[in-house]
Design goal:
The protein is of the alpha/beta class. The protein is built from five helices and ten strands; from the N terminus they run E-E-H-E-E-E-H-E-E-H-E-H-H-E-E. It is elongated and about 50 Å long.
Length: 145
């Protein structure tokens, strides 16, 4: 059995309630990114077509056996959470202002972001807890339990 663990999968037609895709979509529209206060670590995202293609390649490369295997599919690009604006500039051009997350949520909601995404992001902030997102290196054909 093989368990495929992709990084954040992004696409133009993602569900409107997908938080990471919403952050990217509305950051592009607003030309502003949320500061994501009390968060550190990395974003690792990749287009859905590339992830799907790689999962198919993995599927064809494996013979069915009794070993449990995990495969993490990474973009290989470490995007520091606090450097999202720089990364979006590289991908899409333009300049992306950094604003407080609450201000970003207000602006994004005004231009159509789902209220449930806004409430989720607000709830994360309200906990006051620091959050860390490690970068998981891609490891092809990793054996597990």
């Amino acid at each position: 059995m093989c368990i495929n663990r992709p990084c954040y999968v992004i696409c133009e037609n993602a569900l409107s309630t997908d938080t990471v895709n919403a952050v990217i979509r509305y950051s592009r529209e607003l030309k502003a990114v949320p500061e994501l206060e009390k968060m550190d670590g990395y974003f690792d995202f990749r287009q859905v077509e590339a992830v799907a293609d790689e999962i198919l390649q993995t599927l064809f490369a494996w013979q069915s056996d009794q070993t449990l295997k995990y495969v993490h599919h990474s973009s290989g690009i470490k995007v520091p959470i606090q450097g999202l604006n720089t990364h979006l500039t590289k991908l899409y051009g333009g300049v992306y202002e950094r604003v407080s997350t609450l201000e970003w949520i207000r602006r994004a909601t005004e231009v159509g972001m789902e209220v449930i995404v806004a409430k989720f992001m607000e709830a994360v902030i309200e906990t006051g807890e620091a959050r860390s997102f490690p970068f998981l290196e891609e490891e092809k054909y990793a054996s597990g339990v």
